[in-house]
Amino acid sequence: MEIEAHLYIPIKQIKVDKSEPPMALIAPPPAAEFFPKLIHRSKSVPCHLYTEQRRVIQTKTSIKTTHHHHLLKRHALRIVNAVVEGGGQARILLSDVVVKRPKEVYKGRKWNAKDLTTAGVVVAMHLLCGFAPFTFSWGALSVAVALYVVTGLLGITLSFHRNLSHKSFKLPKWLEYTFAYCGVHALQCGEPNNVGDLEKQPFYRFLRRTYVAHPVTLALVLYALGGFPFIVWGMGVRIVWVYHITWLVNSACHVWGQQAWDTGDLSRNNWWVGILAFGEGWHNNHHAFEYSAKHGLEWWQIDMTWYMIRFLEIIGVAADVKLPTQTHIQRMTFPPKT
Ligand SMILES: [Zn+2]
Ligand SMILES: [Zn+2]
């Protein structure tokens, strides 16, 4: 069995006995629903890993998690059991979600070069934001908003998430690459999830190798156009804004909102994240129908990314656009209350 190592970075290091039946990740015993939260917060969680026979494969490993835990289920990996250490309990404000706080996620953690770079970039961008009040102009704000749409909608949600990670639709290569290029400028320090697949294409290998050069070039162009204020707003404010919205999808959308589908997890549809994150806030819909290019399934569920995909489909550019199937819809519908 191949483990999709790129979904959970440190899993690569876990040696899995191939004679064992498909197994084993993580889920804390006290409150099963607490786990998705951690996953979606991309934190490293110390836990014990068990196989289906409860044989410990590895203890106190640090599992870095991503948004795409639900994909793991598809890869014969079953969440079995794990003990998450540390922490008292806390109820989240205005929500029925109780979390058990893991202690000392950062203390004692081994920081590798990539962690440090990521942390450095995140801190630097936040520092840039400190200059925002003193450098405000309508021009600078417009640059930030324009780049928010281009990198966030076209780059992250349309390209990285729906096109490349979930393969919800197909685009001609030149356009696929163009949108993926927009995503690089969001500086999320991560690639779309099916990296192995993309690694075969020279274009993505090129992007990976030259990753830093692109945002730096953009920063220089912005500086040439509008000086320091354009850097503050076009890079700092805009990038931090997109960071926080991304984090909202992975946290708020598991805490606040409605569940329209019987997904058996904590994902929710959250209208205000839906607006800010170009449709990604309809997260319960997304958990129910991961492959769907459309996340806002009801007419009133605003989904800017979907409108763009639909437009590309109408003009004959996007093809194989996937939508929830009728049988799948029936399967995900809540049983009638008795
Ligand atoms: Zn989720
Ligand atoms: Zn997804």
Automatic annotation (TrEMBL):
Pfam families in alphabetical order: FA_desaturase (PF00487)
Sequence intervals crossing the membrane: 116-134, 140-160, 211-233
GO cellular component: endoplasmic reticulum membrane
GO MF term set: palmitoyl-[glycerolipid] 7-desaturase activity
Alphabetical GO biological process terms: very long-chain fatty acid biosynthetic process
Membrane topology of this protein: Multi-pass membrane protein
Limits of the Fatty acid desaturase domain: 206-309
Required co-factors: Fe(2+)
Compartment(s) where it occurs, according to its Swiss-Prot or TrEMBL record: Membrane
Pathway: Lipid metabolism
Top-rank lineage group of the source organism: Eukaryota
Record's keyword terms, sorted: Fatty acid biosynthesis, Fatty acid metabolism, Iron, Lipid biosynthesis, Lipid metabolism, Membrane, Oxidoreductase, Transmembrane, Transmembrane helix
Protein family membership: Belongs to the fatty acid desaturase type 1 family.
Domain notes: The histidine box domains are involved in binding the catalytic metal ions.
Name the UniProt record assigns to this protein: Fatty acid desaturase domain-containing protein
Lineage per the UniProt record: Eukaryota, Viridiplantae, Streptophyta, Embryophyta, Tracheophyta
